[in-house]
Amino acid sequence: MGVPYYLAPMAEISHRAFRELIEDFGSCDAYFSEMISAQALLAGGHYEKWYIDAAPKPEKLVFQLVGSDFEAISQAAALLDRLECAGIDINMGCSAPLIRKTGAGAAWMASIDRSGELIARVRPLVKRRLSVKLRIGYKDDFGYLAQFCRRLESEGVEMITLHPRTVTEKFKRLARWEYVGALRQELKIPVSGNGDISSAEDLVRRAAGPCDAVMTGRATVRQPWIYASARRIESGETGQKKTYNIEEIGLRFLELLSRYQPPDFHVSRARRFFGYFCDNLKWGTFLKNQLNREQTLLEIEQAWRRYFNEHEEKAQV
Ligand SMILES: Cc1cc2nc3c(=O)[nH]c(=O)nc-3n(C[C@H](O)[C@H](O)[C@H](O)COP(=O)(O)O)c2cc1C
After folding, report:
1. Does the beta carbon of 91 lie inside 6 Å of ligand 1?
2. Quick one: pLDDT at residue 313?
3. Residue whose C-alpha is closest to residue 110's, from 142, 73, 137
4. If you average pLDDT over residues 14-23, what whole number do you get?
C-alpha cells in the first residue's frame, strides 16, 4: 500500500454522514473532522455532540480544533483526547476573514513564537497524535514556512499538513506542491500534502511523492469513491472502469444526513454537499441553483429525483 490518504477537514461537509458515505465505497486512512470551535466545545453548545461524533471509524478520526485562545484550545484538546480518536489537529490554515479576525486559523501563522507557545501548552495534555494544518504563510516565503514548522516540530507536533497557498490566495491560483517536498526536507516529522487533487489518478500521482500522506477535500465530495478508485489503480487492477449511480448516491447521502445530523443542519449541509456533487451532472449548475432554493430536506430530495426523471441518461458516471 502507498502513502496514507486523508479526508480534509471541511466545515459543514466532513461530518459523520459524509464519512458514512465514503465508507460505502472504501475507507480512507484518516478522516479529519470539520473544524470544531474550542470555545463552543467548552461551553457545551447544543450541537457539540454532533461535532464530536467520531463514528463510523473513531480509530481513524482526527478532531480538528479552531480557536485563538491558549487556554480554550488546551482545555478543548485535553477533552477531545479523552474520546476515542486517532489524533488532534490544530487549524492554523483557515483563511476565512471571519476566523482570522478573531486570531484563529491562519492568523496563527503571523507569529512563530505565539504558535510555538500554543503547542508547548497543548502538547503535555494530548497523548494522541498532535498535528497542525497550515498554509505557506502570509507571504510566499519558504524560509519563514520552514522556520515556523521547525518550531512546531521542536514543541512536539507530530505531523504537518501543508495546503501550499498563501493565506490570502483563493482557489484560483494552483497549489504549489513543490513546497510539500521542500518542507519534507526540512523536517523529521511526516508532511502531508493537500490541494487541487481532482481525480483518483491525480491522487495516485501525488501519492508517489515526495510526501508522507495526501489529503483531499473537494474532489472527495465530488467523488466519494476516490480513495477506493485510487487503491485499485495502485494495485494495478485492470478491467472495466467502475460506474457510479449518481442519483442513488445522492439519495443515500440525504438518508445519512437525516440520520446522523441534527434537523437544523439538514438543509445547509445538503446544499454544501450538492454544491460539489452536482458537478458530476451535465446540468449540474442549474440543479445546484434549484437545490439552493429549496427549504427542507424533503424538497431537496424531490428536486433531486425530478432532475433524474427529466435527464435519465445522466444517472451514471
Ligand atoms: C467547504 C470547505 C470547508 C473547509 N473547511 C475547512 C476546515 O474546517 N478546516 C481546515 O483546515 N480547512 C478547511 N477547508 C480547506 C480544506 O481542508 C483544503 O485545505 C482545501 O479545500 C484544499 O484542498 P482540496 O483542493 O483538496 O479541496 C475547507 C475547504 C472547503 C472547500
Report:
1. yes
2. 57
3. 137
4. 98
Q: Is 133 in the pocket of ligand 1 (CB under 6 A)?
A: yes
Asked whether 153 and 183 are in contact (CB, 8 A), the reply is no
Pocket test of ligand 1: the residue of 10, 135, 180 to mutate, having most ligand atoms within 8 Å of its CB, is 10
Ligand 1, atom nearest to 161 Cα: 19
Secondary-structure breakdown of the chain: helix, strand, coil percentages, each rounded to the nearest 5: 50, 15, 35
Number of the ligand 1 atom closest to the C-alpha atom of 196: 25
Give 47-83 pLDDT, tens digit per residue. 999 999 999 999 999 999 999 999 999 999 999 999 9
Alpha carbon distance 302, 126 (integer Å): 46
Cα separation, 119 vs 100, whole angstroms: 18
Could you identify the atom of ligand 1 that is nearest to the CA of residue 216?
Answer: 26
Q: What pLDDT is recorded for position 172?
A: 84
Confidence of residue 272 (pLDDT cuts 50, 70, 90): very high
**Distance from Cα 28 to the centre of ligand 1, integer Å:** 17
Domain boundaries, the chain: 5-234, 246-314
Q: Is the CB of 164 under 6 A from ligand 1?
A: no
9 C-alpha vs ligand 1 centroid, how far in Å? 6
pLDDT, tens only, 206-228: 999 899 999 999 999 999 999 99
Q: Taking 80 as the threshold, does the pLDDT of residue 117 lie above it?
A: yes
Give domain 5-234's CATH number out of 3.30.1050.10, 3.20.20.70, 3.40.50.720, 3.40.30.10.
3.20.20.70
Whole-prediction pTM: 0.97
Q: In degrees to the nearest 10, what's the CA dihedral of 60, 66, 71, 75? A: -30
- Which secondary-structure segment (H or E) carries 88? strand 87-92
